Amino acid sequence: MQGHGPYGGTYDMETGSYSGTPYYYVPKGRIRFSGLEKRHILIAFVVLVTAFLIILTLYGRLVNQLPLALLIAVVSVLTGFLFHELMHKYYAQKFGAWAEFRYSTFGLILGLVTSMLGMLLAAPGAVYISGNLTRKENGIVSAAGPLTNTAFSYIFLGAAFAVSPLGSLWVTFFSGVAFLDAWLGAFNMIPFPPLDGSKILRWNFRIYLACLLLPIAAIATLLMLHMIVLF
After folding, report:
1. Residue 48: HSE in the Cβ half-sphere, 13 Å Cα cutoff
2. Is 85 a catalytic residue?
3. Rounded to an integer, what distance in angstroms lies between the CA atom of residue 56 and that of residue 172?
4. Which residues does 94 contact at the CB level (< 8 Å), separation at least 6?
């Protein structure tokens, strides 16, 4: 998910505060992180792993397989959350904008509460962006996150099919990660701010449709795989 940060003032990379004359942070050849941003990423990462672990153990039939549930949760958060946000950040900085992740306290609490209720509404925060991005550039930045989720979902879906002769344990791992990535990709395509879908739809309807249907197709294929292999 991405949002829009403040446009004026000199940005302090360590404290996250603004002062002085108007300034845009323009990266020089590599992705940049502030100390404050690293802390926000770490906190969001730990909370999301906890939320995934809750839903996998209480509702995913993995209560007696805690190491497997933890592995699925960690890999899912790495691919579903961290790489999602990093791709937003990478493309925003590539286009010359200031871009940093900030967690949402409400979103993290919402993730924990909904995981205890048997579903996961993950809105851990956003990459906040300031800069003169065109509608197309903003659409590309927005699409980079959910498309990363979708790409990982198909990678792990292919792995699930490949290891299906080895037994349900491996299928559970790969398909579990694939499902969570696909779910996050589809969820972010809801066309309401601040979710990515609203900005992609405003830019290009066809690309929005592709970004929406690809993760849905992955989820449908996963359900078919589970019916064939696990039941």
Report:
1. 27
2. yes
3. 11
4. 27
Residues 215, 154: Cα–Cα separation, whole Å: 8
From the candidates 37, 85, 100, 137, give the one annotated as an active-site residue: 85
Spell out the residues 6+ positions from residue 205 whose beta carbon is closer than 8 angstroms to its own.
none
Size of the chain in residues: 231
The domain segmentation of the chain, as residue ranges, is 2-229
- Cβ-based neighbours of 145, under 8 Å, separated by 6 or more: 1, 2, 84, 85, 87, 88, 188, 196
Residue 129: other Cβ atoms inside 10 A: 25
pLDDT in single tens digits along all 231 residues of the chain = 655 443 333 334 333 333 333 344 554 556 788 899 999 999 999 999 999 898 888 876 776 778 888 888 899 899 989 999 999 999 999 998 999 999 999 999 999 999 888 887 767 888 999 888 999 999 999 999 999 999 999 999 999 888 877 667 788 888 889 988 998 899 899 998 878 999 999 999 999 999 999 999 999 988 887 666 554
